[in-house]
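Re: the request from the purification team.
They wanted to know what the chain is likely to look like in 3D before they choose a buffer screen. I agreed to run a prediction and write the result into the notebook, where they can find it.
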Amino acid sequence: MDVAAQAKVTSHFLHRLNPDISACDLNTSFSSIEASRQWERSEVFKRIANVRDFGVFNNFAGTGIPEFGAFNLIYGWNYSGKTTLSRLFRCLEVASLHPDYPDAKFNLSHGDGVGRDHEFGTPTTVRVFNEDFRKEHLLWDDSSGFNPILLLGSENIEKQAALKTKFAELNDIREVRKAAAAECTRLVEKIKNAETECASQLVRELPVGRIDRRHVNQISDSWKGALPEPLDDESYKAERLKVGADQKEELPLLKVDLKPHGEQWKRAVALLAEQVGSPATLSRLAESSEIGNWVQTGLHIHREVTRCEFCEGPLSPERVASLNAHFSSAFTELKSRISKASEWVSDRTIKIDGNVYGRAFFYADLHREHGEAGAALAKARDVFNSALDELLDLLLQKDDNPFQVLTAPSEVPSLTDLSDAAARFQTLIDANNRRTREFRSERDAAVSRLKVHYVTVAMRKIDLCNLNRKIEDLKTADRSVEEKITALETEIIALQAELSESTKGAEAINEALRRSFGKEDIQVRVVDDKFVLMRANRPAKNLSEGERTAIAFCYFITKLLENGNELADTIVYIDDPISSLDSHHLLHVNAFLKDTFLKHDSGATPQYSCLAKQVFVSTHNYEFFHLTWEWMTKGKSQGFSSAFMVERSDANGLISSKLIECPKSILKFRSEYLFLYHQLAAYVATPSNDLMVIFNLGNMARRFMEGYLAFKFMESEGVDKKLPLIITDTVHCERARKFMHFYSHTHSRGGGMKLPDMAEALAAISSILDGVRNHDPVHYRALQTAA
């Protein structure tokens, strides 16, 4: 299309938005357009023949409903499947299945006799406005605004060919880059999986709390590309024992008397050979130590008596004197020295308490040393004590008979072995006590060493260094490819800019915003061939949902003429254009749709036609439905307009939707509230076990009661608070409340898996209607009259 033709198309669209534009600028391009806008059934969809496995449309056949018209209005509550239906048409637009429904199959009957199905064998010009369109084309979080509209003006064949070649080259490079990126991702994932598995092992086997692969990565990163060696088996077992040990009590120091004892030993040995013999010695007492000791013990009680206390025989003074002479002071003094020497020998005996230094009081990794050091100490102690015991036995013999001369070993027992063994065992005690004092830090150190060990084993298993080298090589290559892509994209952008008429697109969006929503505070401006949203000369931020919907819709309308596309050759599907908008915007959108798609030829007999090839509009808003239906039915010719409803059921646990002819009751009542009353009253008058009827009763009952409460009490926070004022019987009130909540599908989708029976539904709805009748009989009579 040349510049002049493009300008006329854009000017035509602006004229639809603003009739003040002079018609003289349009007349050269309208003749062919006007001819193509006549309603021809051979050029449009007639009906949806069948749909399978497309979301809630799991098995639908549309042969039993009226054919589509030039204008088609579809009504359905939220969650009924309206958006899913729009995605079916979106599949035809993009010639591919929706990613959520890869196994879907569908077929739409067409006036030319060739069906349009999931194989996409026959192209069709379809444009769909729905949530998917918003997500694809409007990047709200992008600082540059949203994707620019490309309205081609004069076409430069040479530049178009160059653009095509560069796109092909770019696609080839991107495919290569994509494959390299996939390999890089695979290698990275292999490392991540190994790190995750290793982290799980650390959590299982070590007291490390909650950790993840990032902790493993920190350890491996610290190696700077050089993997350490894992612990050997002995070191590994030792570290495991440290980690698994319980904290021990500190042990007392080992007390072993190692003072020199040569002089004491020699004096004790000398006592064995010392003699106390004299002329007064009594041979009988000297020969028998037992008799001598017995006599000596009893001598002091016979000092003042004349008879023996044992035998009562006469005890002469001469006999007493001889006995006293036998037990002289030298004798007594010798026995005293022998007694002291015996005490010294006994005290010098080495005693080690096994209950204090038992194996159980030492850490498990010290048990081996405990066995060896303990055995050496016991041996040295026994050797030393054995020499002392021998000397002590001789001293006791000497004490029994001081007159006896005994021979003892002259060699003094050595302290060397005992000292070495005691020092070794004390070193073991010190190590054990140090472990106790530093228990936490030692265990933490052991945990750290084991962590490194486990990570080392895991990373060696996947050859981490080699994988990292491959990843770095791929990244290096990717940077080179990225430079090529950037250069190509720069060239492509330059070519596109030369072919672009973006400013006209911006003008169209701004005019659409003003005309359809009355918005002049938000404007679209072209900056560097990109659209930027501005509010009062500043980038627009924090857009409301209503503003986003308005901009998205206006953007969609302008794209209908993108790249020279003719509106008369396009089938348009618009899903919920007034979602999130208030009633003021609702009127604007309705008027805008009418002005965009309905042609009115004034005259004696007004004529109406569709400016697009075919139009579909779906909505959940009852008021918008009737406003749109009013102008869609301006044309009275056969097939000019058709109304449908998306109906959803959850019967037998299967969630399913279908498109049906719009019920006459919906078309009859302009008020949704009046429609709901009519449906509920009709059910009470003629109860039915039809699941398709019962399915929607809970939802309709709740919406009806919300409407009543809204204008009676200005209540907008649910029905629970005011419902007892309407249904005064507590049992009936609770039954109605539970019925509305449990079976209200827009309130809780979980309730849709179970349906009430006829008796339950009839009782609940009767309570609701009786409650309204009793609460406001005048209003109820008005409802009956209107119905």
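For the purification team: The mean pLDDT is 79.
Please add any questions underneath this entry.
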